[in-house]
Amino acid sequence: MKGLWTIGLLIVSNVFMTFAWYGQLRLKGQKWFDELPLAGIVIMCWSIALLEYFFLVPANRIGFHGNDGPFSLMQLKVIQEVISLLVFTVFTLVFFKTEALRWNHAVAFILLVLAVYFIFKK
Questions:
Q1: Which sequence spans correspond to the domains of the chain?
Q2: In which region does residue 68 sit, left (phi positive, over 0), alpha (psi from -120 to 50) or beta (all else)?
Q3: 61-99 burial by CB neighbour count: b if 16+ within 10 A, else e?
């Protein structure tokens, strides 16, 4: 159960982080956004990223085997990276229609799945 909670919290945290890092790129052309100074954009993105920490920190605390969770530190990191790239890919395909999923992206994802497999090998 802790494993599922960890993965769910990591997914939510990565949604917030993806919007913080890349969502602002989609707002170009909005009058209110274009008038913001760079510092204002950074503060806006940081505010979104702060929400990410409310999910990431508990995910790592719940999931880490040092806190009676099911995952080692290395496993947590690899899981987080795979989730991050999956969330980013969905985000890109939904919000940036000019981006395309190519064969090399598919190969990279396969290699990431292999990374997950090997990180869990004893």
A1: 2-119
A2: left
A3: ebbbeeeebebeeebbebbbebbbbebbbebbeeeeeee
Q: Nearest 5°: phi and psi at 98?
A: -80, -15
pLDDT band at 40 (very low <50, low <70, confident <90, very high): very high
Ramachandran angles phi, psi of 28, nearest 5°: -60, 135
Residue-wise burial string across 25-57, b where 16 or more C-beta atoms lie within 10 A, e elsewhere = eeeeeeeeeeeeeeeeeeebbeebbebbeebbe
Strand partners, 64: 71
Rounded CA-CA distance 66/45 in Å is 32
Distance CA 122, CA 103 (A): 31
DSSP string computed for 2-32: HHHHHHHHHHHHHHHHHIIIIIHHHTTT-HH
**pLDDT band with cut points at 50, 70 and 90 for residue 10:** very high
**Measured distance CA(41)–CA(47) in Å, rounded:** 10
